[in-house]
Amino acid sequence: MSPLLTITNLNKIYHRHQPDEVIALRDISLKITAGEVVALTGPSGSGKTTLLSLLGCMSKPTSGSIQLRGRLVSKLPERFLAQIRRTSFGFVFQQYNLLRDVSVLENVMLPLYPSNQSFRVMKKTAGAVLERFELQKMMRKKVKQLSGGEQQRVAIARALVANPDIIIADEPTAHLDSNLSEILLGILANLNTEGKTIIIATHDPAIYQSPLIQRRVSLRHGEIVEDKNQ
Ligand SMILES: Nc1ncnc2c1ncn2[C@@H]1O[C@H](COP(=O)(O)OP(=O)(O)OP(=O)(O)O)[C@@H](O)[C@H]1O
């Protein structure tokens, strides 16, 4: 099967040629196939978030290439990248990145706005996703009124509302207790059964040792030190 995402000889340097230059990723090559569930692990500062942001077309490499479904995306201008992010990726961040003073429903509708659908259709789509995560009763509440676990579910609902093929999650269990982590793993497992590709950066053994994870890529100092199926 041809790879969904291919990165080749990727380097990422922050503050290049400045005294505080950081080489965050060194010569990374990786192929991810559609339907895979991959955990990116490694100590703090090893480059996990940087790699996720490159895989998710959120930033550009200093050198090297990124291909999505065979299309070279690493050199595309931002307006094309924004469209690719909207249509192909769902992002779940550690800090949720939700609008705290805005309702749950509006937060989840947000990724649909650029699609130019009518408000009624967007509301229906968002409502269906909220129902799936048992959040329909709180859809009028402001995000700041919810617990951490509820906010995490809203963040996942928002990541999925535009039906992306690829889910990118950065430390998704950082603020969850073990019970909620289990629920999250169940949600991710269901999504994978539907064919979604999932890439998760995590320190959490409950995630990277779970049967959901098919492959573990370990980073140290910006390099891949291990890449194994499990
Ligand atoms: N925007 C930035 N500007 C400068 N340096 C950065 C930036 N983002 C990350 N870095 C540096 O790049 C290196 C890799 O950081 P990254 O956040 O990718 O690691 P990580 O493995 O995700 O860490 P953590 O587990 O703590 O989130 C670190 O040395 C970090 O300080």
TrEMBL record:
Domain ABC transporter: 5-230
SUPFAM superfamilies in UniProt: P-loop containing nucleoside triphosphate hydrolases (SSF52540)
Superkingdom assignment: Bacteria
Gene3D superfamilies (alphabetical): P-loop containing nucleotide triphosphate hydrolases (3.40.50.300)
UniProt key word Lipid metabolism: no
Matching InterPro entries: AAA+_ATPase, ABC_transporter-like_ATP-bd, ABC_transporter-like_CS, ABC_transpr_LolD-like, MacB-like_ATP-bd, P-loop_NTPase
Example of a GO cellular component annotation carried by this entry: membrane protein complex
Keywords, comma-separated and alphabetical: ATP-binding, Nucleotide-binding, Transport
GO MF term (any one): ATP hydrolysis activity
Recorded family membership: Belongs to the ABC transporter superfamily. Macrolide exporter (TC 3.A.1.122) family.
Name of the featured protein: Putative ABC transport system ATP-binding protein
Source organism: Desulfuromusa kysingii
